[in-house]
From TrEMBL:
One of the GO biological process terms: triglyceride biosynthetic process
Region (Disordered): 38-57
Entry keyword annotation includes Phosphoprotein: no
Annotated pathway: Lipid metabolism; glycerolipid metabolism
Reactions mediated catalytically: all-trans-retinol + hexadecanoyl-CoA = all-trans-retinyl hexadecanoate + CoA; hexadecan-1-ol + hexadecanoyl-CoA = hexadecyl hexadecanoate + CoA; 1,2-di-(9Z-octadecenoyl)-glycerol + (9Z)-octadecenoate + H(+) = 1,2,3-tri-(9Z-octadecenoyl)-glycerol + H2O; hexadecane-1,2-diol + hexadecanoyl-CoA = 2-hydroxyhexadecyl hexadecanoate + CoA
Protein name listed in UniProt: O-acyltransferase
Transmembrane segments: 99-120, 140-161, 173-197, 203-220, 302-321, 352-370, 421-440, 446-465
Signal peptide: none
Amino acid sequence: MSDKLEKGPITRKRRSTISGAAAGATLKQVNGKSNISKSNKVSYENQDCDGSSKEKDHALQTAAKERKYESQYVGKLSCHKLQESLLSSASGYSNYRGILNWCVVMLVLSNARLFLENLLKYGILVDPIQVISLFWQDPYNWPAACLVIVSNVFILAALYTERRLSVGTFSEWLGTAIHSVNLATILCFPMFTVLLLDSVTPAGGVFALGVYTILFLKLYSYKDVNKWCREIQHAKARSLSRSLSCPSVQRSSKRGGQGHVSYPGNLTHRDLYYFVFAPTLCYELNFPRSPRIRKRFLLRRLFEMLFFIQLLVGLIQQWMVPSIQNSMKPFQDMDFSRMIERLLKLAVPNHLIWLIFFYWFFHSSMNFVAELMQFGDREFYRDWWNSETVTYFWQNWNIPVHKWCLRHFYKPMLKRGVSKWVGQTAVFFASAFFHEYLVSVPLKMFRLWAFMGMMAQLPLAWFVGRFLRGNYGNAAVWISLIIGQPIAVLMN
Ligand SMILES: CC(C)(COP(=O)(O)OP(=O)(O)OC[C@H]1O[C@@H](n2cnc3c(N)ncnc32)[C@H](O)[C@@H]1OP(=O)(O)O)[C@@H](O)C(=O)NCCC(=O)NCCS
């Protein structure tokens, strides 16, 4: 400190004795500019013209000393700058990785407490044998599996109808009628079988109806795409015959690389069964294909599939089932405060199970199947967790269904002049129907809660879009997911 006081005035005094050139050099040093020595040199060259070399040396030494002092003290003298606190939004700071880790740690700790509480209260309830009995009551009677095997009849019916349509043996009208009957049967046949056959368990029923629903959507897409191909073919044929220099339609459709399929070359068993097993609901003649099967990727997905399915089953048996059983009484007594307490208690395991299901199904399982089939398009979900509106959530959480809805239902409706609002309502109505179909039929309970839950998305989407923005919108979407599902579960 005393050193500083001593040297300060000396510096100032010397600065006044040398010419402006030295002062200029000092200032430049303070500002951290790199051309100091150059400016000094130029200045002292000028001085050299009218002064002695001694004077020049002295000035140079003084400037060097001055630079040394200033560089020594400049960092010490100023230690503040104009800046915002990190947590102010104006600071522009956005790296909250540590906070995220803290949330995960808190989540693990609080759930560990709940897990212990559950173990102390109920003991171990996980029972893999019970899971098997959910699908097979009688080892010699597999109705759900038989239903799935029978579904091949509908697949072949769609293929043979398309073959007839491609050669003109069936008119478009007849083809549409046959496809409609086939598709209606795909929905009705398993429904009546599950309702009438007592040997079909609820889990078996959900599995069989799930397979048939997927098949319905796939064959609907297959019918549409082949029809579009025929329309393109007819349009081409018309324009070519008009121009009188007509290379055959067949020849023109052979364009493309090796392995490129064109209509009607796609109407084969191999092509249709590839589509049936591929993780998509939208048919295409030439799916993007990955170059090879990555074995390590495949094994990792397989391991995840096996691990998460065990975890899901364990959590349902240990946590979900006792919570639901405990919630029945307050709901029967209409005891509102206890009902809300039970609802919030059920929300935690329900949400955790739903998140694990999402990862298991949309990431592990779909990627596993896609890798095995070298199916290239792996966009099975997008960043729905950042949804700030309900609309964004439905556009991004289940891409195969959303893609199908847009391509085969929503856009065709808009093209026919239907308004956006009516189109969206119709899509949500159809989606609500399928949700109800997959819940009510296997459980043999028709309470319409799944249907209403899906239809409630429309007013919810309007409310969140109209009144909430940004993080508030995102929180609203999360709350609707966390609370909405247990409400539907308990109402059923
Ligand atoms: C109803 C639903 C399809 C609406 O989707 P959306 O993306 O909000 O619809 P938009 O009005 O923004 O339009 C989407 C597309 O239609 C196109 N479009 C809009 N108006 C159009 C018109 N008049 N004619 C043709 N296309 C039109 C848009 O360009 C856009 O095309 P792009 O996807 O290629 O960019 C969607 O909310 C949905 O999939 N809902 C159901 C989801 C569901 O039930 N999932 C089940 C999961 S378990």
